Amino acid sequence: MASVHESLYFNPMLSNGVVHANVFGVRDWVTPHKMALLVLLSELGRAGAQLGLLERRRLNRLLLPLLQGPDMALSRLRKAIEECCPHLAGSVHIRLKLMAEGELKDMEQFFDDLSDSFSGTEPEVHKTSVVGLFLRHMILAYNKLSFSQVYKLYTALQQYFQKDEKKNGADENEMELTNPEELDGKMEKEELDGPLREEEIACSGPLSQKQAEYFLSQQASLLKNDETKALAPASLQKELNNLLKFNPDFAEAHYLSYLNSLRVQDVFSSTHSLLHYFDRLILTGAESKSNGDEGYGRSLRYAALNLAALHCRFGHYQQAELALQEAIRIAQESNDHVCLQHCLSWLYILEQKIFDSCVLLEHSVNKSLHFGLPYLASLGIQSLVQQRAFAGKAANKLMDALKDSDLLHWKHSLSELIDISIAQKTAIWRLYGRSTMALQQAQTLLSMNSLEAVNVGVQQNNTESFAVVLCHLAELHAEQGYFAAASEILKHLKERFPPNSQHAQLWMLFDQKIQFERAMNDGRYHIADSLVAGITALNSIEGVYRKAIVLKAQNQMSEAHKLLQKLLIHCQKIKNTEMVISVLLSIAELYWRSSCHTIALPVLLQALALAREYSLQYLASETVLNLAFSQLILGIPEQALNILHMAIEPVLAHGAVLDKGCAMFLVAKCQVASAASYTPQKKIEALESAILNLNEAKTYFAKVDCKEQLRDVLYFQARLFHTLGKTQERNKCAMLFRQLHQELPAHGVPLINAFK
Questions:
Q1: H helix or E strand, kind and range, residue 374
Q2: What is the pLDDT of residues 662-680, one digit of tens each?
Q3: Can you give the residue ranges of the Anaphase-promoting complex subunit 5 N-terminal domain (predicted)?
Q4: Which residue in 59, 89, 109, 220 has the fewest CB atoms around it within 10 Å?
Q5: Residue 194 domain-assigned (yes or no)
Q6: pLDDT at position 55, please?
Q7: Would you place residue 185 in the very low, low, confident or very high pLDDT band (cuts 50, 70, 90)?
Q8: pLDDT number for residue 23
Q9: What percentage of the chain reaches a pLDDT higher than 70?
Q10: Could you give the CA distance from residue 94 to residue 99 in angstroms, rounded to a whole number?
């Protein structure tokens, strides 16, 4: 305990010119920077009516961030004042120069004169105002200094002023060699109102308690709303360690350290900081003062609950369950219904890892509404909607449930949950294959966030909901062939969510998937294969599936089949229905390429049954197209055309450009195959109609730069033009085909051995 007490009473006056009167008796201490602010306030009072209304308004807006923020260099302070009132900046500089180059008694006289600001019937400063409280704190802190501490403060003031003079001298020498217009620039408002820069905090001394509280609240707000504007994880941790060096029992600093460790997925440091936060909360008695004797128990049960949430986040489900049981036991002993409802929500999350059950979640929603916890109730409703979406419930029922949730959001002004709800709707429409509706919801969220700003000039659009919607938007653009627009969206995502941020994995996965699809379309299988490792690191299921696609494209059928069978068993076990259907379609394609057409039919029928059972309309349409292709191979093109008309409409309305092209190519194949039994005149009409469909398919394939499919379409068109006797058109298609055929590797020209 000796080392703890020594650190508690550590006196920081020996470093950075900071004189600390008493760590626990006074909330502030005197520094040269704060003396410069006192001079500014004194000169502001002297100026009085000489200042114009606009200048006074600018100075008033400047004062609050100066009083709350950390210490800064005199040059930067003077520049900030010059932006508001150049005349006042000169007066402050002269006053500081007289004090720094004068004697110690000049500083003593200055503090004696500060008390006059409160005297008289109409004082210059009210005692209870922000400026008045700051002046009183500084006067009190100065009066409590010993003579040696006063001398050290005076020495620090001289060094503070001399450092600025040396910098000005160096700047003047540079200006003699440089164009003055290049150096003349105004300080932007965001430099003071915005978040603190790393070099500013690093060069400042120890923060006072009020400055520390402002710093912590600002960084916590930035971590929640706009992580890119917060300090880098290493710099923030360095400053937090510096704060804790002066006061190890500063509970809020431990909690911010916990949030900072979560950013970099550091399980050890985050656990350590979280436990220290609740330990300090109990030691300082902050909880017991506000909650009576119940405060200690409250800290303990919420500590266990937060520990359970932390373990669940890192995938330590057994440890999370033990911590949750402890939280439930303490909450039951204390009859804390609010804590019990939070425990019930986390219990559902843990149980969901084992089996799907809506009972706990429905009970949690009802109890949360009963105890007046709209935030928790809304999260429960949205979790219930998500679970039922995966279970295949109708979209109209899910949207009705989300509408009820939105009523709670608007009633209680829960803006964060409004964003989550819209992102949820976007994802649900994507799951059901309604890209148009998903695009509409995504645009709604982007429009809402562009109008809503929070403190310190931060746009509240760096949340997970915003990242999810932007990722869907990038993928939707890429599917329609707008790769430049998708790249711009991903570039914006990279700026908003740097690689070290907690939501960066979202755009990383979508970026890799889009690059993979482009490489596959272009026939560059070696590049696609190199991207598989990155996709697997972010999502193992997606990575294995795409590895099988590459093997299939490289004609390694047996290896692809083994991989797909293993993936199918795994996805069936974890009930990932969407991936199960995609795997079944890939297995069916392997059977076609191996000339096992009859074996592919049961696989396709199984995929169709799953897609219809779980209301996955787009996957159902794609499966029907594959069934039509099977019927074409088996020699019944008329039946294939009949079911094509049933499935092609959703594909053309909501499908990707590549799927649209494949669908139109398949229609043309079926039309040509059916025309064999027609009369000559009707056959010519059917072939001309097939050529028109091939032109449309060619447009789609060209949009996504799918050269292999373009080659097949051109070959097919050349054959049809030859049959119709159109020599000029045939030669043109043949020439384009030859150019592509020389560019692409020669695998033959597969006309009827694969749907895609």
A1: helix 374-390
A2: 999 999 999 999 888 888 8
A3: 30-167
A4: 109
A5: no
A6: 77
A7: very low
A8: 37
A9: 84
A10: 9
Q: Measuring CA to CA, how many Å separate 702 from each of 22, 474, 480, 517, 661?
A: 75, 20, 11, 14, 9
User: Two tokens at 348?
Assistant: 């559902």
Mean local confidence (pLDDT), 519-535: 91
Contacts 24+ apart (CB under 8 A), 215-221: 215/70, 215/239, 216/252, 216/253, 216/256, 218/456, 219/195, 219/256, 220/256, 220/259, 221/454, 221/455, 221/456, 221/458
Tokens of 39: 């001079």
Tokens read off for 352: 């969901």
How many Å separate Cα 349 from the centre of its chain?
A: 22
Cβ(443)–Cβ(490) below 8 Å: no
Q: Tell the residue number behind the tokens 């039309």, with chain if given.
A: 671
- The boundaries of the domain holding residue 133 are 32-166
How many angstroms separate the CA atoms of 165 and 286, rounded? 46
Residue 455, pLDDT score:
47
Q: Residue 44 falls within a domain, yes or no?
A: yes
Please report, as a single letter, which amino acid is at residue 688.
E
**CA 511 to CA 529: how far, in whole Å?**
15
Tell me if 57 is assigned to some domain: yes
Rounded to whole angstroms, how far apart are CA atoms 586 and 552?
A: 9
pLDDT tens-place string over residues 348-390: 888 776 555 677 778 888 888 888 888 888 888 888 888 888 8
Q: Locate tokens 């704190």: which residue?
A: 137
**What is the structure's pLDDT at 25?**
36
Sign of CA dihedral 712, 717, 718, 723: positive
Distance in angstroms (rounded) separating the CA atoms of residues 670 and 693: 11
Q: Which residues contact 690 (CB under 8 A, 6 or more apart)?
A: 667, 668, 669, 671, 672, 675, 720
Question: Residue 121: what pLDDT?
Answer: 61
Question: How many whole angstroms separate alpha carbon 353 and alpha carbon 373?
Answer: 25
- Cα of first residue to Cα of last residue in the chain, in angstroms, is 72
Per DSSP, the residues of 687-703 read HHHHHHHHHHHHHHHHH
* Residue with tokens 């911590």, as numbered in its chain: 323
Compute the Cα dihedral for 697, 699, 704, 708 and give only its sign. Answer: positive
Q: Would the pLDDT of 297 be above 80? A: no
When pLDDT is cut at 50, 70 and 90, the band that residue 745 belongs to is: low
pLDDT at residue 583 greater than cutoff 90: yes
The answer as to whether 156 is a domain residue is: yes
Q: Of 139, 118, 120, 142, which is closest to residue 129 (Cα–Cα)?
A: 118
400 token code pair: 């009705």
